[in-house]
Amino acid sequence: MADDEHKRRRVKGEFCANAAKDDCGCDSHNDYRGNCKPAPAWDVSVADYAYAQIGKNKGSKKKFRWKHGYEAHHLLCVGTVTKVLIDGRGISQIIRETRWCVNNPMNMHAMPMWGHTIKYYCDIDTQTVGSGGSQPPPWKNIPQHDWDHNSKKGYRFEVEEQLKAVAKKLRENKKQHKAEAKKLPDTLEKLSDHFFGQLKERGERCEGTDNGWKKGGKRKDWFHPFSMGNDGCVTEKGYPRGDFDQQTAGKLKWLKDQLTGKL
Q: What whole-number distance in Å separates Cα of residue 50 and Cα of residue 255?
């Protein structure tokens, strides 16, 4: 996800919330991207895309490209785990004695970005949007990692609320810190499994993502399966249509240049 998601990299005792590349550095030596690599692998020719983005560097703006085949999503988000558990009030000793890593396979899930889906369904060469091939993309029915992950009451909000409830129980039982530290990994694994199930259900809403795209012009809720948010907190986006005027065609050419890394 964005840099702000992973910037607070912390380890406390045996509790690891370090999302470093290749090896997180704890005794588990987890590679968080490797722990959720799609199997079978998503074809790079349809999964990779690049886009230009403006960022600030010491007051100046810089244009750069980003290219990725899939997003390595932490079901219990790194920043939220750090905020609520590692930095949690009154539970420091329990966390320090808990052997758990935020990058373990149970907590990882490969997800597409909206750009992956746009590239798959768009005919980039002719700059027109169509229904794509007869086969859905390999990430069919998986919500988009950049759609309601960080919205006001989106995915991270839900994770934080669940972890706050865990932290509250830990504070209530902090005198039994050894027993609580022993139970906590199982509690967190069950939460990871819960959110994996939530994302699976959300990706299958309204006939799923493939039908959502192909029938988008015919149903108002086409975008629901693309969102990580629950039913009441889904953010709507405009549906790319095929009946373009000149202005729309120009915007699509700009999108083409973004996806192919020409900007």
A: 10
